[in-house]
Amino acid sequence: MREGTSADAVEGIIPKFVAEPASAEEVTATLEQAARDRLSVVTRGSGTKLGWGPPLQSIDILLSTARLNKVVAHRHGDLTATIESGATLANVNRELAAHRQWIPLDPYSGDRATIGGIVATNDSGPRRHRYGAPRDLIIGVEFARADGVIARGGGIVVKNVAGYDLPRLMTGSFGCLGVILTATFKLYPLTASSQTLVVDLRDTRQLAALAGSILASHLTPTALEFQTPPLRLLLRFESIDASVQQQSATARQMIDSAGLSARTVTGDDEAELWTRYGAPRAAGAAVKVSAMPTELASTLTLLDRLAAGNYSANGRAGLGVFVLHLDGDAAALEKIVVGLRESLPAGRGSAVVMKGPVDFRKQVDVWGPIGDGLPLMKAVKQRFDPDSLLNRGRGPGGL
Amino acid sequence: MLPYGVNATFLAKLEEIVGHAYILNDPNELLTYESDGLARLHAKPGCVLLPGSAADVQQIVRQCHQHRIPFVARGHGTGLSGGALPHPDGVLIVLSRLNRILEIDIANQRVTVEPGVINLDVTKCVAPQGYYYAPDPSSQLICSIGGNVAENSGGAHCLKYGFTVHHVVGVEAVLPDGEMVHLGGPALDAPGLDVLAALVGSEGTLAVVTKVTLRILRAPERVRTILAAFESTDAAGAAVSEFIAAGIIPAAVEMMDRLTIEAAEAAVHPNFPKAEAVLIVELDGTQSEVDGLFEIVEAICRRTGGTEIHIAKNNDERARIWRGRKAAFAAMGRVSPNYYVQDGVIPRTKLSEVLGRIRALEKRSGLRIGNVFHAGDGNLHPLICYDEQIPGQGDLAEKVGAEILQYCIEAGGSITGEHGVGVDKSAYMAKMFSESDLDTMQKLRCAFDPASLCNPGKVFPTPRLCGEVPGPYRQHPAERAGLAERM
C-alpha cells in the first residue's frame, strides 16, 4: 500500500492510499486493514467505468486489480476459463483464441475494460443479442468479502445448482458486495464467418417493423442493433460461411420487401465498423435505457421530444436495451432522464445514468426507482458489508 | 396431537385465509404430501394449505412469520432431492391452485405465469405462434414452473440454451416476513442487485414465488437428431470431445450406457441399437447452419467408431429417440426392483476417468449402476440398482451414491447439476464448499430470512440462525430440538 498521488485521482479525488495487491492474500490483507481502521475502499480495474454511478465523496483506499491479470485456466475441452479480475477482456480473448474460443462479450471499450469491471457492472455489447450478458456466461466467482474472507460460489462446470448463486449475485453489484478475484465463464467457439448488413431507416416506425419481423423470423443474428442519428439498423450474422450467406440473403429479401435497402459490410470494414461502434461523446452523459422491445420506437419518439433531437443512441433492438448519449447542463440532462423514467413503469423499463458530468450525477437520482425489492437489496448489502466500506454509495440504489 | 406452534388458534386463522376446503390436517389427507420425488424421505407437515391467490400466500406467510412457524412451499412435488419435504412443525404451502397463465406477449417474447403452471404448458400456449420455453427437465409433463424456479431446472437442451435462471426475467415473490416484492420484470436490466438470480435455484429457502415472467424463444427453423451406437462409453465420449474441438455446440448431447439402453428398450421400445453406449446428438438453428454442422457431427461419429448411425427422418422418429432417453430413469424399474438416481457433474473432459471409477465401484459394491449423462455438459445420472428386500442393500446404494459424488468433487465438478441439494445432499455441501463459502451463502439467506422460517433445514449442512431476529425473541423449533444454535 502506498500513498495516493494526483495520478491516482478519480474525478479529482485523490485516494489516501493505493493498494495494488498481487495475490488473493494481499487483497485479504488490504481489506482486513480497511475493516480494522474503517477505511472506505474503491475497487479499480482499468478505470473505464470509475465515473459510473453517483460521484464519490472521498476515497480512503483505491484497490487496483491491475496486478491480478492472469488467465488462471483455459479448459478448452470443457469450454470454460477462469480469469483473474484485473485481466483485460481483450487480452483474455487473445489468449483464448489459441483454441479458437472466446468469452462472447463485446462491451464498448472492451479493449481496455477488465473482467472484474465487466462482471461488476454486467456490461455487454451488441453480441448480447445472441450470447447474453456476463450474468448469462458466468459460472463461478471467487471474491474477497469486506472482512477480507475469501468466498467462492458456483464452480468450474457449466451445470451446477449446488448452493446459492453467488456468481450472479456479484454480477452487476458494482463492487459493493466484495472484491472480485476471479471469475469463471463458459466459453463459445469462435465463428468461421461474419457479415453485417446496414439498413438506413426513415423513422422509428420502420425500425419497429423491421426489427419485429427479424425477431419473428428464423434468422439467428449475433447482433441486432439500432443507431441514431441517422437512424439505421445493423444485423450481424456469424456462423459457418454457408449459414452466414443464407441468412444474409434471407435478411436482404426481407429488407427489400419492406421497401428498404441494405449495405453489406465484410472483412476489415466490418471489423472497423464494430470497433468504433457505440463510442460515447467525450463530454456529455450516457444513460442506459431499457424498455420492452415493442416500446423501443415510442421511447425514441419520446426522446425526440424530451431532448429536442439533441441526442444519439445505440443498442439492442431485439432486447430493448440501449445507451443514450446526451449533452447539456445538469438541469437539462436531469429533465430528460426524469421525463424518460415517467414513461417507463417499474419492471417495464428503466433509465440508469452511467456516466456524466459530476454536477449532473450529484443532482440526479443516478439509479432511478429500484422498486419494492430495495429493502431486500439493502439487507443483502448490510449482511455482506455491514460497515458499508466497499464502493460506498455507489452500488445499485445507492447501496 | 398438533405439532408445536401449529395449534387450533393458528389453524383457524389459516382456515380463514384459504377456506375450509383448502386446509388439510387429517393424517390421511396429509399422506399425499409427505414426500416429494425422493420418496425415501418423508415427514408429516403440521398442516397443508392450498392457497388460491398470491394474496393468500402472502397472508399465510405473514401468519407464519408472526407466530414463528416454519413453512415449506411446494409445487407438484417432482423434485428429487427432498427440497419440498415438509417441516414436521410447520406448514406446507402447496401452490398447485396457482396455475393460471396470466399473460402471453409474443412480440416481446414473454409469458407470465403463476407458479403452479406445468412446464410443458408454457410451450403449449405459445407453440401455435412458433415459440417455445427452452428449459425442458425430463419431468416437464408434470413439474411446475415454481419448482423449476426453486431448483433452477435444466434439461437435455440446456447445453445450448441454459437453465431456468437464463429464462426467468421477473418474479413476484413473498419474502419470509410476508412482504411482497417484484424483482426484475418483463424488461431486461431492472436496476438493483441481482437478487432475482440468487432467488432462482435457492430451493425454496429464500422466498415463495407467486408469479413468474419467462422468456420464450422462437422455435428453430431446423432440428436434426442423430443416434449413434458405440462400442464403449469412452468412444462415445471421444466423439463428444471432437464436437467441441470442432467448435460445435449441439442443442443436446446425451449418452446412455448398456444397462440404461436395455431398460429404456424394455419400457418404451425406442428401438435403440444394442450397444455399450449410444449418443443422441441434436442440432438446431437455421437450416444452412444445422445441415452444415450435421455433416461434421456425422463424420465425427463415424470416425470415432460409431457403429449404427440412425438419423431421425421426421418428428415422429425424433420424438421416439427422446422418449427413450427421457424414460430412462423410470425405465430402470424394468431391470431392477429399486434404484437410486444420482446427479453429479464433472468437467466433461473427465468423463472417461470418472466412468472408470464408477465401473470399479460397481464391481466392488456388487450393485449394478446404469449411466445416463448429459454428455455435453458433464452432468452424470448414475442409476444405482438395488433390492430393498435384501437387508442392507438400500444403505449400500446410498453409500455408492455418496462415493460417486466424491468422484465428482475430486474431478472439480459439482454434487448436483439439476436435482438440487435439498435434504438429500446437504451433508455434501461442506465437501464441495469451504466453511467461508457456506458462511457467505448464509449471509445471503439471513438477508432474506433472518428468522429462519422459509424451508429451514434444506441445502446447508448445519442449520444456523441469523441473530438479530426482529420482533420478540422466541425459541426457534430447530433450537428447541437441539438442532441449531443462534449465531
Protein architecture, described:
The complex is a heterodimer of chains A (399) and B (487). The model of chain A has no long low-confidence stretch (mean pLDDT 96). Chain A has four domains: 64 residues, Uridine Diphospho-n-acetylenolpyruvylglucosamine Reductase, domain 2 (2-Layer Sandwich); 119 residues, Uridine Diphospho-n-acetylenolpyruvylglucosamine Reductase, domain 3 (2-Layer Sandwich), CATH 3.30.465; 84 residues, 2-Layer Sandwich (Alpha-Beta Plaits), CATH 3.30.70; 79 residues, Alpha-Beta Plaits, CATH 3.30.70. Helix content of chain A is 31%, strand content 25%. Chain B has three domains: 87 residues, 2-Layer Sandwich (Uridine Diphospho-n-acetylenolpyruvylglucosamine Reductase, domain 2), CATH 3.30.43; 118 residues, Uridine Diphospho-n-acetylenolpyruvylglucosamine Reductase, domain 3 (2-Layer Sandwich); 188 residues, FAD-linked oxidases, C-terminal domain (Vanillyl-alcohol Oxidase, Chain A, domain 3). The chains are: A alpha+beta (399), B alpha+beta (487).
What layout of secondary structure does this protein have?
The complex is a heterodimer of chains A (399) and B (487).
Chain A (H helix, E strand, L loop, with lengths): L1 E2 L13 E3 L4 H14 L3 E4 L16 E4 L6 E5 L4 E5 L4 H8 L4 E2 L12 H7 L6 H4 L2 H4 E7 L5 E5 L11 H5 L8 E8 L1 E2 L3 E8 L3 H13 L6 E6 L3 E8 L1 H17 L4 E4 L1 H10 L8 E7 L4 H11 L4 E6 L4 E6 L3 H13 L6 E7 L2 H6 L10 H11 L15
Parallel strand pairs in A: 2-4, 3-4
Antiparallel strand pairs in A: 1-2, 5-6, 6-10, 7-11, 8-9, 8-10, 12-14, 12-15, 13-14, 13-17, 16-18, 16-19, 17-18
Helix pairs in contact in A: 7-10, 10-11
Chain B lengths: L7 H11 L4 E2 L2 H4 L16 E3 L4 H14 L3 E4 L16 E4 L6 E5 L4 E4 L5 H8 L4 E2 L12 H7 L6 H4 L6 E7 L5 E5 L10 H5 L8 E8 L1 E2 L3 E9 L2 H13 L6 E6 H11 L8 E9 L1 H17 L5 E3 L3 H12 L1 H4 L6 E4 L2 E2 L5 H15 L3 E6 L4 E8 L6 H18 L18 H4 L2 H14 L15 E2 L11 H4 L4 E2 L1
Helix pairs in contact in B: 1-3, 8-10, 13-14
